[in-house]
Amino acid sequence: MEKIPSEKPDIEIVEHIEPIQEAVDPDFEKKIIRRIDWRLLPLMSALYSVSLMDRSNLSVARTAGMGEDLNLTVSNRYSTVSCLYFVPYILFQLPSNVLLRFFGVRVWLTICVSGWGAVQLGMGFVRTWGQLALCRVLLGLFEAGFFPALVFVITTWYKRHEVQKRLAVFYLSSIVIGGFSGIIGYAITFLKGKSGLNSWNWIFIVEGILTLVLAIFNQLFISDFPQKNTFLTAKQTRFILARVENDRGDSVPDEITVSKVLHHLSDWTIWACALMFMSSTMPAYAIAYFVTIILNSMGWGVKASLLLTTPPYVFAAISCFIFAWMSDKTKRRAPFIAVQALMTITGIAVTGYAEKNGPRYFGLFLANAGASGCIPSVLAYSSNNIVSHSKRAVSTAIVISAGGVGGIFATTVFREQDFPRYLNGIWATIGCQILILVLLALTSWNFARKNRLLKEGKIAGPLEGQPGFFYTL
């Protein structure tokens, strides 16, 4: 591959980027986009994978002996420990996106990744369930700034209808690696007894060390916002910013002020997308935290329960990317979200009510694929329908923090007393998917109506204050 020279661009002080007027060489464009993909997506995928694995490995650790050692089976201790993570995770989303702009992507993400890696390592040495609960709170605090930062950065590099495939790539990578967490956990169980530690201790220790190693890679290789990047030339950077300017007119960041934040928070569609995201993360977290427990309740032993968690995640990754590709290809979001919500309803109902283990296991495939696919789909739907960096920062934080609410919901409605079928949790999950469908219909009607009124000349001024902008349905 031809090496493209790298030099620090002189873009970040520019206050305006002119849209592209002349014809663009498609080979030149593909070459630059491919270079951006390879710089951003592999490392971001790896980072998000360990993030997802570190927050959801409680199920694996419990199956590997943590439940007995820390008395997590008493009352609702396991659900409480699982739930506590999401309190700081929700509260610090919006402040973290403000700090992201202040510190820059590299410094802020390094703080986040190294912080939760250290906490994850420390979880391997806890002796009581209270100490574990405290670690989960700290884990949620450090991870709060991570996922919204990734989504924010990715959406600033690409045009609107290129976003979902990119979100799906790093998300499905995390699904696959997260799906192998059961196998990884099983492999780590062979360390049982080393240095006087149980299997579950080693799960946290090994995964914590892996996270700290990735924090070093993050510091060395992560890319900043387009106007501050150091791996493209000034000419290439201007071209990327001009593409974004052509697409939605917000290539240059606007200043974040209190009045702007309050104005953005008054947009009801942001809150609707947040509720949709909450409803899509709820079953995803429920499966992550309870899948090995459910499989164990079907009669499979510890080894089989850990190993059987992987196939549903592999299937989910394939399904997620297919839906993302079709969505970007057709430039439509809502229909594909609806189909995946219906998949989740079908799968979770089969898992809850089928009598035989085969159909129940198959239900996990459908439910996991539908829920996992809805997550990047809703993020793309939300990000496609906003303009300006300030609104993107607010919207991303609000929407993703709602995902934390979905995590709290999942850990509280799948109660210990409902083991092994968790029927209350099943119905709560179905209710969330119905909420997605209702909110999807309302927002799509609103966006379609505004698009139509603008075309008919019945709206004064452009949509989102950006001439030529139309909402994505």
Describe the structure.
The model is unreliable at 1-15 (pLDDT under 50). By secondary structure, the chain is mainly alpha-helical. The chain has helices at residues 26-56, 58-69, 77-84, 86-91, 93-103, 105-123, 129-143, 146-157, 163-179, 181-188, 199-221, 234-248, 258-265, 268-297, 302-307, 310-330, 334-353, 357-384, 389-413, 423-455. It is 74% helix and 0% strand. It has one domain: Growth Hormone, Chain: A (Up-down Bundle), CATH 1.20.1250.20. This is Major facilitator superfamily domain-containing protein. Keywords: Membrane, Transmembrane, Transmembrane helix, Transport. The chain crosses the membrane at residues 78-100, 107-126, 138-157, 169-188, 200-222, 268-292, 304-324, 336-354, 360-381, 393-414, 426-448.
Please sum up the structure shown.
The protein is an all-alpha fold and about 475 residues long. The protein contains 20 helices and no strands.
**CATH classification class:** Mainly Alpha
Biggest beta-sheet profile: none
Taken in chain order, the helices and strands follow as HHHHHHHHHHHHHHHHHHHH
- How large is the count of helical segments? 20
Percent helix range = over 70%
CATH superfamily: MFS general substrate transporter like domains
Mean pLDDT: 85
Specify the CATH architecture: Up-down Bundle
Distance between the termini: 38 Å
Which runs of at least 5 residues are low in confidence (pLDDT < 50)?
A: 1-15
Q: What share of residues are in beta strands?
A: under 5%
- Structural domain count: 1
Which term fits the overall shape?
A: globular
